[in-house]
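Weekly modeling sync, notes
Attendees: S.R. (lead), two postdocs, one rotation student

Agenda item 3: backlog of single-chain predictions. S.R. asked that every request posted to the team notebook include the full sequence so nobody has to chase files. The rotation student volunteered to paste the first one in as an example of the format we agreed on. Action items at the bottom.

Example entry:
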Amino acid sequence: MLREFLLVGFLVIIILAIIYLDRAVGTRYRPDLRGPKGWPIIGNLLLTLEYGHDIHDHFYEKHLLYGKNLSYYFDSTFTIPVVGRFLACNYPEGVEYILKTNSANFPKGPVIQKLLSDFIGDGIFSKFATAFNYASLVLSEPFLNPLWPITEEFTTRASRMRNACKTARDVANDIIQSRRIEISKNEKIPNDLLSLCMNAIDEDGRQLNDNELIYMILNLILAGRDSTAQAITWMIYEIIKNPRVEIAILKEINSLLKESNQVPTYDSLHEFAYTTATFYESLRLHPSVPANVKTCLKDDVLPGGVPIYAGDMIGWSSYTMGRTKEIWGEDAYEFKPERFLKGKEISKPNPYKYPMFNAGPRNW
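Predicted structure, as returned to the notebook:
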């Protein structure tokens, strides 16, 4: 009996290896696409595991290797068991199609939604910071380890993640309940984001419940804490590397701020054009959100005529796009805040060639 079972299993593997000769099992044969050659049945699993924390540099290398061999609108592809096929689209026209033209067909998808839902819902102090930092680290796991749904069940990561999420939600709930107590005592309430969210009313006249407010707080902190710290850190790094930029910033600051008033106001920030351009240029080369992924809901065709099928994952790398000469010119590798200036005013580029926090006005 055991011999027959092993024989059948061996034959199944042989058949699958023949069918899925260079791609992950369950994925569609795509001779029209180019990318790193995969292994039978497991596709590019070993390659993606090898990337580790250098994944964004590897994405950029693959862009240079395969992106020039296809249409301007498409880079490369690879396949991973369970996850399926991933397509890389690192050009403005493709990003615009995904985020704007047909955005309804490209939601986050079940893989990303499952990963994020426990922590920030559908829509962070010592103990809280520890929990938040751990949860943020685990959120990057699918990009570093495609087998995370399996490996997390055989390690302590799953239970630690659940505990970290519970701690973060408990702290957020304490903040909300404290604010409700302040409101009940008719104390002076600050006009902050929490108050705005608590007072918000939807089209049906309904306010957000506590659970929705908890996830709202976690979303705000997740989106605004580490991303801001990273952006400022990289900006300072580039200023140190480029003394001429530092001199230009100091000249601008000294020309706009007076001895009697050395603190800029919110309304005056737009006057600091060169400083703002330096910040934008830093984000171009060091994006706080270096990559993003969506899932195709229904069969579709990308700009340039590249088909994409339901269930395929498609992503773009802001890290790669910020270094692409076809987008930014031959000086794409250079740190030049002047590229964001038109005379003495800020020159805003097409948001789809600069999708540092996805596209749209919030980029600016």
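Discussion: group reviewed the output briefly. The mean pLDDT is 81.
Action items: rotation student to repeat for the remaining queue; S.R. to check formatting next week.
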